[in-house]
Amino acid sequence: MTIRHPEKIKKPINPLKKKPNWIKSKLTNSQEFFLTKTIVNQYNLKTVCQEANCPNITECWNKKHATFLIMGDTCTRACAFCDIITGKPKSLDPLEPQKISSAIKKLNLKHAVITSVDRDDLFDGGAKHFYEVIIETRKNNPNTSIEVLTPDFLRKGDSYKKVIEAKPDVFNHNIETVPSLYRKVRPGSRYFASLELLKNVKKINKNIFTKSGLMVGLGENNDEILQVMDDLKSADVDFLTIGQYLQPSTKHHPLNRYYRPEEFVELNNIARSKGFLLVSSSPLTRSSYHADDDFAKLQSNRISQTNAKSIS
């Protein structure tokens, strides 16, 4: 019997599929784009826009919208869909809360989105660091609404409650895909643990908007998508985003197919019929895409919903 060393076993090569014309993003640079880049570099910050090769970076940075990536650029997990590097992260930067806060002020953001890599190496998964970033940001930017996109804090007990204690305006945690694909796509995560996290956020503070995102095109079927919608609605999630999975390289999970624009419209209509406060569904929809405008819609929809209940 021949023993093959793991490092000598070639990983499967998953060919990239040509993008259809409706999936291509605009590549236009502007003065605002370079201003955003300059401010990000000035404070030596990381953004998920860059690290995850987001297709919307040009459009968002032209509006001076950047999604800040805290706790480094190295993730402790290896999700098969993600382009962020995996490895042993560096220690936390104690000055990062101040840097993030200053950058947000300089960009004059009315809505700030803050996310992170998974930090399973930390005793609390980075919850305290999230807390400090939120508190510092709010102190120096009192008129800026704050949205966080967090890890699942798996096996970290109640550490996630520290993030809720800081009272972000939006608490986002992406479910990403359907349960049957978790072992291949999100091997370090657990579907029902993610649902429980979202449910608990709303239980603890009903005033915080909860949000989750789903990618399509990984190999799921329609019934599975509908089940995820039902599960998220049962967890009292307010806002659902649905976007097209774009395979980053031949080493990542293979793209099953591209959904057509009209299919995203159909998914949008179905999700809205299930009672979500807001739904964003399109090929290029991502967690923080148009997040500032969507936050305003969430507020407006909540007021309309409350008024409708009081009348009835």
What's the total number of strands? 10
Uncertain spans: 1-9
What would CATH call the architecture?
Alpha-Beta Barrel
Tell me the strand order in the biggest sheet: 1-2-5-6-7-8-9-10
What is Rg?
19 Å
Biggest beta sheet attributes = 8 strands, mixed
Average pLDDT score: 89
Q: Could you name the CATH class?
A: Alpha Beta
Helicity, as a percent range: 25-40%
Order of helices and strands: HEHHEEEHEHEHEHHEHEHEH
CATH superfamily grouping: Aldolase class I
CATH fold assignment: TIM Barrel
Termini, distance in Å? 74 Å
Category by helix and strand content: alpha/beta
Give structural attributes.
alpha/beta; eight-stranded mixed beta sheet; globular; disordered N terminus
Description:
Helices cover 38% and strands 13% of the residues. It is α/β, with parallel strands linked by helices. The protein has a single domain (27-311), classed as Alpha-Beta Barrel (TIM Barrel), CATH 3.20.20. The strands form 2 sheets. The chain has an 8-stranded mixed β-sheet, with helices on both faces. A two-stranded parallel sheet has the order 3-4. β9, α10 and β10 form a beta-alpha-beta unit. The chain is globular and about 45 Å long. The model is unreliable at 1-9 (pLDDT under 50).
